[in-house]
Amino acid sequence: MVMSEEERKKRNNVECDRCGEGIYRPPSKLKRSKVFYCSLRCHNLAQRERLTDKERKDATRQTKLKYAHSAKGKAKIQERYLKNRPVLLEYKKDWVKKNKKRSLSNSKAYYEINKDAISAKAKEYYQKNRVTIAVKQKKYNTKNKEVITKKHQEYYQENKPKLLAINRQWAINNIDKVLEMARKYRRINEIKIRADNQKMRDELQCGYIKKIICARSSITFKDIPQLLIDAKRSHLKCLRLIKELENGQRPTEN
């Protein structure tokens, strides 16, 4: 049964909250709500008018994110990315160069929020591709050996106190490991160590003289001035010269 315009107007019991047009709503809906719209268009326009610019942008962003995380959205984004990959990568590089601070800030914020997930993913990837990563790393290190060495040296010189403090603290916390590493090194390089020590004694190097001065005292290497090292070196030279003369040998010139 089709109602006439007059009958329809008589039947209307509420007005559209936006345009004021009369509409009919059943009593059950009248109890649940106080705001009514004549059409979906009026509803959407009212929602837009009620929002501020910022809220509207946030709502649009949330809608886009919701679509991007859906199966259809993911497939479409992946297809578009593969199609335009070189252009997108170039654009990303240019953007990072122009917005370096912002990019770094965004990366740090993202890492702090997703720290556990990123670590788990990195570990999983490393375990799966361990051999491939090692081969690539070795190849890269061999190719760029001079550049890497230079960078390491520059970084060490810039951060020397900090690195020494970190190493010292690590050695204190892992004393057993340090001693085991020292024993292993001595076993492997026994001949080299002996040769180096003999060279230090023959040439009366500063390290050898410091060891002699500190042997029977509480003085540390840092406390020994260069003047004392030079005096002790002269003293040892004199003792060696006297010993050579007593043995009837011709004194050597040092």
List keywords for this structure.
254 residues; mainly alpha; 15 helices
General description of the model:
The chain is mostly helical and 254 residues long. Among the domains are: 1-50, no CATH class; 129-188, no CATH class; 189-254, no CATH class. The chain is 77% helix and 2% strand. The protein has a two-stranded antiparallel sheet with strand order 1-2.
Rg (C-alpha, Å): 40 Å
Number of helices: 15
Strand content: under 5%
Low-confidence stretches: none
Measured distance between first and last alpha carbons: 125 Å
Mean pLDDT over the residues: 86
User: What percent of the residues sit in helical stretches (DSSP H or I)?
Assistant: over 70%
Summing up helix and strand content along with how strands pair, one would put the structural category as: mainly alpha
Shape: rod-shaped
The number of E-state strands comes to: 2
Please outline the major beta sheet.
2 strands, antiparallel
Order of helices and strands: HEEHHHHHHHHHHHHHH
Query: Which sequence of strands runs across the widest sheet?
Result: 1-2
